[in-house]
Structures are given as C-alpha cells and as structure tokens.
From TrEMBL:
Pfam families: Pect-lyase_RHGA_epim
Protein name per Swiss-Prot or TrEMBL: Rhamnogalacturonase A/B/Epimerase-like pectate lyase domain-containing protein
Origin: domain of life: Bacteria
Organism: Paenibacillus hemerocallicola
Ranges for domain Rhamnogalacturonase A/B/Epimerase-like pectate lyase: 55-126
InterPro entries assigned to the protein according to its UniProt record, in alphabetical order: Pectin_lyas_fold (IPR012334), Pectin_lyase_fold/virulence (IPR011050), RHGA/B-epi-like_pectate_lyase (IPR024535)
Amino acid sequence: MEHSNSWRDYAVVSDSATMWNEYAAAPQTHTHIPDCSFAGYRYSEQALPDIPEVISVKDTGAAGDGQRDDTLAFKRAIERAALSGGGAIYVPEGEYLLSDILYFRHSGIVMRGAGKDKTKLLFAKSLTDILGPLPFGVHPLRSQYAWCGGLIWVGPQASMTKDNWEGWDDKETLASLTAPAKQGAMTVQVDAEDAGKLTPSMAVQMTWDNPSDHSLLEAIAGHERMKATDWVSDGQMLTRWPRWYWPTEIAKVEGTTVTLKQPLRLEVREKWNVALRPLGSHIREVGIEHLTIRMLHNDSDYVHLQDKGFNGIYFNRAMHCWVREVAIHNAENGIIHAAVKSSTVSGLTVSGREHHHALALRLHSHDNVFTDFRIESKTVHGINTEGLSSGNVWRKGVMVHGTFDSHRLMSFDSIRTDITLHNDGKPGGGDGFGPFLGRRMVHWNVCLIGSSGDWVYQPDCMPNGALVGVRGAEPSAKLCGRGTVPGFKGCVVADLATTPELEDLFEAQLRHRLGMRAIRRLAR
C-alpha cells in the first residue's frame, strides 16, 4: 500500500484484484471490506418466494375503476388472508382508489398485483390527513413523517402508536455471553442454565451495551484517529442510546455453545455486556409486489421537512420481508426501513415530483439488500442510511437524481456497488448525531455522471473505507465535517478511473460463500 503524496486523506492500493484476494483469504477480518454476503431475504440463501394466492380483492368487493373507494375491500382481503394463516392477496389489473393506510400486522401475507403497468394503487390521503400531524421541534410545520410511517405499513400492532414507532423492542435478557468472541465468529458461549432457554431457529436480539468510555462507539467508528471524536457534543445522540441492537437467528445449541446463523458483526468484550434477548414483536414474510403506488395530491413543490406523509411503503420491526417489481410515483418518501433485518427490495422505480428520500434505512436496520433500483425523480437526499445500521447492500442502481446519503448516526460495514448516479442530492442529520459514517463503508464500481465526487468519492468521510473503481470525477478533497474527525483515517482508493474486473462486489461475496447457489439466487 502506498500513501499518495497529493492527498492527506486516503491511500492508494495497487488494484481491486489484490484487495479481493486479500478479502477472500480472510473475509471476516479485512481492514476495509466487510462481509455483506448474508444480506437480503433469508440471508440470500433462498430466492424470493412465490406465495400461493388465497384471495382476490375482487372477492371482497373492489371495483378497480379509479373512482369508487376500494379501501374497505382491501382491508377485508388482508384480514381474510390473515385468518387463513397467510397467503397472497391478488390485485388484478385496474386502478384502485384508497383513502386509508393499508396495515400489514400479520406475518406471511403478500399483496401481489398483475404488474407495474397494470395494477395501480391510488392513495388520496396523506398520513397527516388520516392520523393527524406529527410535528417535531419548535417549528409547527416540521413533520416526523419526513422519515417514518407509510400508506402501506408493515409492522406489528405494538409498533403502531405514535410513541412507539421505529425501534426494536427492548426485552429482558435471555442469556448473557460468558466469554469473549472475535468479530466474525460463528459461536458464542452462554451459561449452562441460560442455554436451556435457547433453541435452533429462534430469532434473537443480540445487544451490546454502550459504555461511558465510548469504547463501543470507537470500535464502530473504526480508525484510531476517530477516537478524537467529540462524543459529548458532536456525538451526544449516540451516547444516549443504551445499547446496539443486532437481530440474528440461532442455528444450533450444544451445551453452552450457541452457533449463530451468521458471523458476529462486532466482537464480544466483557465491558460491553453482550447478551441474547427475545427479538420481541415483529413481522415476517410479508411481500409487496408487481404493482404501482401513486399518490394523488396537488402539491407542486416539496418543502423540506414539511412532509404530509404521502409515503409509500414503511417496514418497521420486520424480518425476511420483500418488495419486488414495484413503482412509486409522487411520494414524499419511497420506501422506509426502521428496525428491519434481512429483507430485499428488488426492481423498484421511484418517479414523479421532488421529494425527501427515495430509500431510507433507519435505526438498527441490518443486512438488507436494495437491488435493480431506478430513481428518476429529484430527491433532496437519495439513498439513505443511518442509526448504527450495518451489513446493508445497495447494488445495480441508476440514480438520475440523489446522492449516497448518510444522516450521520454512524452506519458501518456496508456496500454500494455497480451504481450510476448524477449525484445532485445532499446528506442530512442533526447536530449531535455523531460521525457521518463508521468503519468499512465500500463504494465499488460507481459511475458519476456530470457531477462532483462529494459524499460519494470523498475519502475524508470514510474511516477504513474503500473507494474502488469510482469514475467520472476526481476524489473530493472536501473535508467531511458532520462529526467526523478530519485527516487520513485509513480510507483506500483503487482502480482509479477504471471499472473493476469484479463489477458487483456483493455478487462476488455471495459466490465466494455459496458457490453456484449464489448465481441461482441472484437470477430470480
């Protein structure tokens, strides 16, 4: 590795092939590239399912003529599918006028249209119209609907109150870990008495306490230089959180040894009091597919943070869910994830008027995949991540507008790969929200068109990050700010102005872990 004389904030490595070979030899301990191969629905080990249909909205009285209100028919169909134990609700070709939120409170339910160009859901009212305003701060027009809630709302009943949105449940401890474990380990040790509470296939919430010495935050921040972060001021929001939440599943229990479904994202240290807790109320196996969501409103101009709540799909406390071949038009926010694990969004198109987020990923959302997406509408931000989220992947995207947005709160260990963008969005995040990004964020095979490298090709933002095969601009010399200590923090640059031989880093990681099974998964 050779440190460039021209810049203070990154190092140049020879090429992406060398980096890949180093990763392949030790996937869990590479300094710059995280293992994100477990991201996606069912850890990307299974294709998105084709759930049998159990009912059509026509069976419950939907007209589909774009004139009569079909809300009650949709609610009846959702309830009947739930009473049947799950299944797909078919929405035939047509235009369906809706005046209320469609809640998916039960696992195993899919809403399936006849195709993006054939089935259209027309939402006539916003969340403000339906639920009332949800202001924040001292400005009466500022709205929390800028980042939460959706007109298609997937989450457990317990999460659907205004004082309980977004985060995971915080349950009592099932089992405390009794021995240290390295990052990337597949097994942990628990007390013999606690081991009896654990069973294979159990979903659990692993938690790491956030001590006052900031050692957990420093580990997530990555580079040694990040220890100079002013956690008291610039990172006060992060220091308020009592712990870091990382859902996973148990593969096996043998005596006091618990084998996890995936490698540990962080190591286990005694001072962090790592524990296994019940995952709490959550929703699984819900899918929205093959349809268009269109918002009916007359607002011509979007005003930042004054969202009325014309939001598309909101996943909250959800696991193993998906969106497949969906178009969203004229929304204020396209798809929002808050406390979401191991889900996939595939084939999304976002279009129409200017809006806030195309994709937002909030609050301890881990191991999700966004693939084959296209953002056509002008967005204030773009594709967002925040809230100590990790292990996420954005791939095969075209962004006519937007940027690689972070709202601070130090997301880490994630990959953006094989994406083309015009990079005209901007990041966000309030004062005191901590560093812009944490460790090991990777931008691999990214093409910038007619735009600067700010936020996308900006080494100062990315401690122990990797910028590989980014083309169309020079590395930005701009200092990140936003709670990030300036100067060299271990970011590396490779394949300058060159397309990497491995064009899709996530696909390469999947193939490395699963072999030919990975190719079959990605083909569906």
